[in-house]
Amino acid sequence: MAKISKDTALAELTLRKYEVPSRGLEKRELVRKLCLSLGLLQPGDSRDVIVDVFQILLESKTELTSTEIEKLVVKKRRSEKRELLGIAPSNIRRQILRLRDLFFVEKIKTNYRIKEHSKLRQIFEEDIERYYMNSILKRVKEYLDMADKVFDNKK
Questions:
Q1: Are 37 and 15 in contact (CB under 8 A)?
Q2: What are φ and ψ of residue 74, in 5° steps?
């Protein structure tokens, strides 16, 4: 019996293009659009705790533990009269991991911070655009080349 390989992606990246950001955009709305643009949040998703986690890390001048992030998320959502959806410690850690997977957040011992206190654009260009996206594009091109060979209709 032939072994069937699993269709598990080795890497995945979703990018979306939205309108040009306007100057008067509230901080939370800016982070929300950023999360939508980076595929961290789905359009129309009401479970948007990733926005609060990312904003807290962006605003923090110091490294934070996941417990501190969780407490700040709850405090922020309460002060903004938002539903307390997705605030379980396990979900907060999962959202931090998603930000780490996209290279925006790094772990220092048991604390988290924006990677090397760098600018987001620098992180995007150096880690996502040059490394992550290029490796994905290279593999897609390998599949395109293989398909061209297999389905060569030009005689």
A1: yes
A2: -60, -45
Q: Report mean pLDDT in 10-residue bins for the chain, 155 residues.
A: 72 92 93 96 90 98 97 96 91 96 96 97 95 94 95 75
What's the whole-model pTM score? 0.87
Map tokens 């290029």 to a residue: 134
Q: Where are the alpha helices (DSSP H) in the chain?
A: 27-37, 49-59, 66-79, 89-101, 120-123, 134-150
Reading the block at residue 122, the tokens are 């620098």
CATH, domain range 27-116: 1.10.10.10
CA dihedral 139, 144, 145, 147 (to 10 degrees): 130
